[in-house]
TrEMBL record:
The lineage of its organism: Bacteria, Bacillati, Actinomycetota, Actinomycetes, Streptosporangiales. GO terms for molecular function: DNA-binding transcription factor activity; transcription cis-regulatory region binding. Residues 34-53 bind DNA. The keyword DNA-binding applies. This is TetR family transcriptional regulator. It comes from the Bacteria. Keywords: DNA-binding, Transcription, Transcription regulation. Residues 11-71 form the HTH tetR-type domain.
Length: 213
C-alpha cells in the first residue's frame, strides 16, 4: 500500500522530533533537556510532541514498541525444527555480528548506554521494556502452542530466555561503562552469550520446536 501524503508528513514529523531530541540529549544529557526545549528546537508545540511520544523517555527510546515485540516476532518467525531458545540465540548472535541496533549493540550504542545508566527514569523505562518483551514472548508461545491457561511453562521459558539476555547484556554494559567500545566488547560478548545459551539449552532447548513440514 502506497503511503499517503498525510501519513508521510506524520512520519517525517515524528522522525524530526526524535532526531532533534536525541541530538539535544546527547549534547546536554537527558535530564538537562526539557520537552518544551525539544518542541521549540523542532518547531512544534509541546502538545504535538506528546501526540507522537507519550513520555519524554520515548523521545530517546523511539523504537520501544519494536523492541518490546522483538522476541515474540523472532519466535513466530522461527524456522521449522527450531525451538524458541534456538531462534532467540540465532537472532541475538546475528544482531551482534551485523552491528544491528535491536539488542543495543551498534556503533555509538555505548554513548546511549551511558546516558541510560545515568538517568533513573530511562533505566526504569528500559526495565519496563524488558518486562513487556518477556511477557509478549510468553503470550506468543502460549498462543501458538495452545497452552492451557494454568500451564506456566510458556512464562517460565520466556523468563529464562529473558534472564539470559539481561545477564549477557549486563556484562557488556559494565564493560562499556568502563570505557570500552562496542567493537572491543563484541568478541567476548559472543563467547559469553554462546556459553549462557548453551547452559540454558540443557534445560529448555527443545521446547516449542516447530514441527517439520
Amino acid at each position: 500500500m502506497t503511503e499517503g501524503l498525510r501519513e508521510r508528513k506524520k512520519r517525517e514529523t515524528r522522525l524530526r522530533i526524535s532526531d532533534v531530541a536525541t541530538g539535544m540529549f546527547m549534547a546536554r544529557g537527558f535530564d538537562n533537556v526539557t520537552v518544551a526545549e525539544v518542541a521549540r528546537a523542532a518547531d512544534v508545540s509541546v502538545n504535538t510532541v506528546f501526540n507522537y511520544f507519550p513520555t519524554k523517555e520515548d523521545l530517546l527510546l523511539d523504537r520501544a514498541s519494536e523492541v518490546e515485540e522483538l522476541l515474540a516476532r523472532v519466535f513466530r518467525e522461527r524456522e521449522p525444527g527450531e525451538s524458541a531458545l534456538e531462534a532467540v540465540r540465532r537472532d541475538f548472535l546475528d544482531a551482534l555480528e551485523t552491528g544491528h541496533y535491536r539488542y543495543g549493540f551498534h556503533e555509538g550504542g555505548d554513548l546511549l548506554i551511558r546516558m541510560i545508566e545515568t538517568s533513573p527514569s530511562l533505566s526504569a523505562r528500559i526495565r519496563e521494556m524488558d518486562d513487556t518483551r518477556e511477557r509478549r514472548l510468553a503470550e506468543a508461545i502460549a498462543e501458538e502452542l495452545d497452552a492451557d491457561p494454568d500451564d506456566l511453562t510458556p512464562a517460565a521459558v520466556a523468563a529464562q530466555i529473558g534472564a539470559v539476555l539481561r545477564t549477557v547484556v549486563g556484562y557488556a554494559v559494565r564493560r562499556m561503562l568502563a570505557g570500552e567500545t562496542v567493537a572491543a566488547v563484541a568478541p567476548d560478548l559472543r563467547r559469553q552469550a554462546e556459553h549462557a545459551f548453551a547452559l540454558l539449552e540443557k534445560g529448555i532447548g527443545g521446547y516449542g520446536a516447530r514441527r517439520e513440514k
